[in-house]
């Protein structure tokens, strides 16, 4: 086996998912599995979630059509929403793999109409194109601005080739303690839904809540919620309530590759950023920044070996980093816990993300392709 590996605990994934189910009660759940399920393995996580029985996710979502293709090739059956805009070159994937497109401007409609003519030239067999309309209520990333949303939706609704399966918005800061901006976004979204109701326009499922909103804002659930990071066992920030019990799904391990004695004054690794204050032993571990152990973590993280924490020292290199084990009796091939827990000792993606001033999302997403994922259920 590769000396470094990630264990993906699918039972934890299921438990996190069911805890979200309990929290949102009768609302639908769209499991966000884009970006390889935040580094956990998209196909494996989606397949497992789809296999858990009648509480399974109602929808899955991905960023790009190619990810949707991958899920369908793995025989995922549930509806799949693609978040990102698509080009003419990608549109065949939407049709071929029955993916739901996100649309928010007239260009998207044109591309879909063009695709329908190209791929279904025979008038009789033309399918309806399932779409979700994205409304921008303040994120200013993707979506039709809420001022133009009603006009746009009226236009879409007139075109009988489209089936509006859903309408959604995305929150900019639902994971912050101050929810005032999120309430503003909720109210803008509610206004649009109410206007559509008055006009008798069927907009399908309305959805908005990401992890922060699921934890803190039941008023944002509408018909469906879209958890991402909660599935993988992390809260989105340090400011939300812990209103759902979570267990991290990924743990990361390696093995000691070498042990070396150094003396007072010796330095370790590129740039000589660590100098031994006295004789000590330095081990190397075969994981580096190419695997997602960011170089800016140098001299800032710890690992666990035989239930004890040790400090990483010196600059993290592409394939390897070093750890000071003092005089302890640690040997080549001893197991190293990078992310995970043993007895009372625990290293979480938060330890790394705090050191990097980022969020656990980036940590799990960055664990590289060289690291095999081993699935345990
Ligand atoms: C449109 C959309 N919805 C939902 C999510 C899930 O967010 P989170 O992981 O914070 O739950 C994302 C993630 O980036 C997203 O882009």
Report on this structure.
The protein has helices at 10-24, 34-39, 42-50, 65-73, 91-96, 106-119, 146-158, 180-198, 211-216, 349-356, 360-366, and strands at residues 5-9, 28-32, 59-62, 80-82, 99-103, 129-136, 144-145, 162-168, 205-209, 224-225, 250-255, 258-262, 267-268, 274-275, 280-285, 302-305, 308-313, 321-326, 335-342, 345-347, 373-376. It contains 11 helices and 21 strands. It is of the alpha/beta class and 377 residues long. It is elongated and about 80 Å long. It has 2 domains: 10-232, Alanine racemase (TIM Barrel, Alpha-Beta Barrel); 250-376, Lyase, Ornithine Decarboxylase, Chain A, domain 1 (Beta Barrel). The relative contact order is 0.14. Helix 10 (349-356) packs across helix 11 (360-366). The protein has an 8-stranded parallel barrel, surrounded by 4 helices. A 5-stranded mixed β-sheet has the order 20-19-11-1-21. Helices cover 30% and strands 26% of the residues. A hairpin with a 2-residue loop joins strand 19 (335-342) and strand 20. The site of pyridoxal-5'-phosphate has 11 residues, from loops.
């Amino acid at each position: 086996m590769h000396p470094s590996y990630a264990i993906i605990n699918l039972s934890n994934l299921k438990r996190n998912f069911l805890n979200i189910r309990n929290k949102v009660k009768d609302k639908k759940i769209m499991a966000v599995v884009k970006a390889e399920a935040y580094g956990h393995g998209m196909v494996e996580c989606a397949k497992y979630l789809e296999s858990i029985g009648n509480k399974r996710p109602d929808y899955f979502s991905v960023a790009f059509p190619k990810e949707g293709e991958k899920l369908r090739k793995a025989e995922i059956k549930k509806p799949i929403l693609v978040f990102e805009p698509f080009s003419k070159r990608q549109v065949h994937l939407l049709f071929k793999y029955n993916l739901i497109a996100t649309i928010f401007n007239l260009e998207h409609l044109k591309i879909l109409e063009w695709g329908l003519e190209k791929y279904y030239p025979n008038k009789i067999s033309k399918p309806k194109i399932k779409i979700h309309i994205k409304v921008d209520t303040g994120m200013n990333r993707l979506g039709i601005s809420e001022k133009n949303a009603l006009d746009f939706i009226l236009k879409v609704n007139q075109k009988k080739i489209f089936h509006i399966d859903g309408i959604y918005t995305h929150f900019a800061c639902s994971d912050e303690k101050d929810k005032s901006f999120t309430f503003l976004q909720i109210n803008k979204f509610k206004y649009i839904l109410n206007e559509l109701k008055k006009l008798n326009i069927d907009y399908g499922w309305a959805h908005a809540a990401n992890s922060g909103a699921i934890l803190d804002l039941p008023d944002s659930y509408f018909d469906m919620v879209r958890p991402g990071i909660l599935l993988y066992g992390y809260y989105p920030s340090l400011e939300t309530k812990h209103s759902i019990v979570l267990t991290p799904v990924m743990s990361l391990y390696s093995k000691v590759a070498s042990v070396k004695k150094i003396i007072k004054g010796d330095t370790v690794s590129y740039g000589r950023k660590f100098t031994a204050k006295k004789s000590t032993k330095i081990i190397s571990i075969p994981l580096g920044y190419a695997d997602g152990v960011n170089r800016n973590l140098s001299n800032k993280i710890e690992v666990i070996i035989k239930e004890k924490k040790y400090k990483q020292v010196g600059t993290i290199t592409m394939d390897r980093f070093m750890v000071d084990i003092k005089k302890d009796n640690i040997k080549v091939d001893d197991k190293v816990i990078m992310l995970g827990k043993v007895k009372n000792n625990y290293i979480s993606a938060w330890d790394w993300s705090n050191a990097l001033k980022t969020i656990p999302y980036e940590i799990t997403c960055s664990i590289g392709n060289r690291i095999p994922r081993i699935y345990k259920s």
